Design the sequence.
């Protein structure tokens, strides 16, 4: 565990908590893409099946369980509890255009053709693009509440910090994973436009 | 090595 990895995980956790709190406190999920949230639930489910097969540490298991629970909790709040506030008219990104290519790509480009490995690869590919419905929604409505912006900033920072973690691990442990690195870079690049707006708006005010 | 990376990172 290095500092970049830890900061990345904290940033990821923060993003999820910000989202849950926003929905809970305002009793509304307006401006949040349910489709992105469903994709994230698929991502965590596919990746964290290893909870059943390998134990790394308490930290590792607890974080995985928290991500899973928070993700399904968010879906429950959006699609059941505060369903009336869900802005489905603006949440129209066709997720099959993301899921199908990711399925295909994970079958073609993976480290090992085994079920768990393919699911892991699929989750990495899908995670890299899972935010697109949310970014599409923000661009469609032309604005995001500041709390939604904080959520996006924290979520985007997480993968950017993981890239620094991978650079560190490459030098410190001579270890790298091409699939994770390429997908992580794609994921971070997708946030760049948003990062730019977030920082400039943050500095220069509304 | 591959194994530990897989399951360790979130």
Sequence:
């Amino acid at each position: 565990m290095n500092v970049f990895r830890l900061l990345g995980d904290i940033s990821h956790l923060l993003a999820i908590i910000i989202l849950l709190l926003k929905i809970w406190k305002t009793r509304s999920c307006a401006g949040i893409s349910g489709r992105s949230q469903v994709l994230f639930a698929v991502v965590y489910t596919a990746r964290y099946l290893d909870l059943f097969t390998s134990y790394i540490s308490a930290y590792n298991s607890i974080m995985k369980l928290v991500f899973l629970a928070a993700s399904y909790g968010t879906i429950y709040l959006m699609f059941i509890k505060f369903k009336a506030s869900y802005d489905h008219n603006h949440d129209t990104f066709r997720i099959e255009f993301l899921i199908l290519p990711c399925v295909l790509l994970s079958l073609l480009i993976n480290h090992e053709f085994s079920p768990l490995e393919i699911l892991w690869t699929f989750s990495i590919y899908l995670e890299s693009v899972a935010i697109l419905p949310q970014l599409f929604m923000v661009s469609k409505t032309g604005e995001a509440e500041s709390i939604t912006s904080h959520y996006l900033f924290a979520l985007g920072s997480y993968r950017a910090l993981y890239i620094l973690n991978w650079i560190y691990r490459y030098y410190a442990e001579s270890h790298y994973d091409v699939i994770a690195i390429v997908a992580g870079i794609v994921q971070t690049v997708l946030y760049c436009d948003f990062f730019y707006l977030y920082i400039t708006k943050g500095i220069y005010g509304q | 090595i591959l194994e530990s990376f897989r399951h360790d990172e979130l």
About this structure: Chain A is about 75% helix and 0% strand.
